Amino acid sequence: MKDRLEGLKNEALEKVVQADSLKALQDIRVAYLGKKGPITEVLRGMGQLSAEERPLIGQMANDVRAAITEKLEEKETQLEAQEVERKLAEESIDVTLPGRPVVKGARHPLTAVVEHVEDVFIGMGFEVAEGPEVETDYYNFEALNLPKDHPARDMQDSFYITNELLLRTHTSPVQARTMEKYKGQGPVKIICPGKVFRRDDDDATHSHQFMQIEGLYIDGNVRMSDLKGMLDTFAKQYFGEDRTIRLRPSFFPFTEPSVEVDVSCGICGGKGCRVCKQTGWIEVLGAGMVHPRVLEMGGFDPKKYSGFAFGMGVERLAMLKYGIDDIRHFYTNDLRFLEQFKQV
């Protein structure tokens, strides 16, 4: 049995020396040191030996196992080092190559416009309010003095989900929700930026999804002159100190009286050009005094409180400020277009 163990040792060590891969080493380990290997087989036959021989053969078997294990680990370390050297040679990095440029992102032009408008109105004491984009019929229409039979509720204008749920068609529902939140106690002074949705055919000036910023101010003795002064301040801070505004009579169900607000053309200085269609003015937003019925439905006493509201399209503000002629540019994610606004 001693000769058998010595022969197994020499045989295993020779195979370890000849092994050229980690897989070959693992195969040798299993073949000689595994549960079904010859060394284990020798140990199982020790019951046939005399009491004097058993400890000697047991010690020799352990020494053979230890010698094979040590040689396997030594060879494994050697092969691993060779593998690392091979990978370094094959996967070498040329540190003289120029690095890949890191492209920095920038704010989307619509985001920049929203933040600019928010800064202007926050400076005048307004707070930013938000609301859900999936809105109820009540807050989107009824609370804003738009009864069931009003043309603006036509299914062709709105994306209805159910009879009582739809994608909001304006950000005015945020105003209605905010009025309820204040429980009839003023002042209320908010602007509401956000996405809105209408069933429009997409073209150069229309989109089924766009952004609005609406504002609401409710307090005691709020007048139309307050509205005009606030809008004049906004126009000068957003478009430039040399710009002026004018108000034209209009109609909106939720304001009375209602006005369209124009700003003087920055291209011709009000003299008339192709951009302003020779009028000297460009329409920018709608506004008016909050309808007494809207105040009442929001929980405010129209005999005690008055207010004004206004709404503007973010895309229109951006198009006017940056000379953009197609609203679709904002949503096509063309980097050639967007990269022009990195410094905005």
From TrEMBL:
Catalyzed reaction equations: tRNA(Phe) + L-phenylalanine + ATP = L-phenylalanyl-tRNA(Phe) + AMP + diphosphate + H(+)
EC code(s) of this entry: 6.1.1.20
Residues given in the record as Mg(2+) binding sites: E256
One Pfam family of this chain: tRNA-synt_2d
Coiled-coil regions listed: 65-94
Keyword Nucleotide-binding found: yes
Protein name in the entry: Phenylalanine--tRNA ligase alpha subunit
Protein's gene: pheS
